[in-house]
Amino acid sequence: MQKILPIVNVALAAIAMIVSIIVLLQVTGIKSSLRDPVEEEAAAAAAAEEEAIIPLSQLEEFNMTDSFILSFDSIENVGKKVNVVLKIGFAIDTENKGAEAARLVLAGQGQIIRDRIQKVLISKDVSSYQDQVKQDELYAEILVLVQTLIGNDAVTEVYFITPIISEK
Question: For the chain: N or C, fewer Cβ within 10 A?
């Protein structure tokens, strides 16, 4: 009897595991059949759009003339300041139908755009400039802002030109 008990336990555990796998597969099948086809198409289109790489020959640089000079409290050293100095540039897709309008707005309304970007930049902490993930989020936030201000999506990228971060 004592020799049979462990064998029965192993057999019951194996049966329970097989039943769990079967139930999991059934639930997964039901869940995938309940997905909205319109949502799936929209998600696939958004993913394809994000992955589209525009050739450099099709991009034109537009660099803001003035640097942004920012001062933040140090996260690591209490009581110290961290200064961030950077210039911002944009990539304009020359094949985009709004490219000319984007150039005109960036050139003609540069100080207004600079002010709006400054408000975004100072709303962050120093980690937004030191951590790559947060910096990418900042790029995306500025890109959406600039596209909204311009009124089209001809600006496809935001980049920092020679950012300098120093602690005092």
Answer: N
Task: Copy the structure tokens of residue 119.
Answer: 């408000």
* 3-class DSSP state of 159: strand
pLDDT tens string 40-93: 666 656 655 555 788 888 999 999 989 999 998 887 888 889 999 999 999 999
Domain ranges of the chain: 4-51, 56-167
- What type of residue is 21? I
Q: What CA–CA distance (Å, rounded) separates 58 from 95?
A: 7
Question: Quick one: tokens of 106?
Answer: 């960036």
- Find out whether 113 and 149 touch, Cβ atoms under 8 Å: yes
Place of tokens 């400039």: 129
Q: Among 126, 127, 157, 125, which residue's Cα sits nearest to residue 142?
A: 157
CA distance 135 to 94: 26
CATH for the 56-167 domain, from 1.10.287, 1.10.260, 3.30.479, 1.10.3470: 3.30.479
Q: What is the DSSP string of 86-105?
A: EEEEEEEETTSTTHHHHHHH
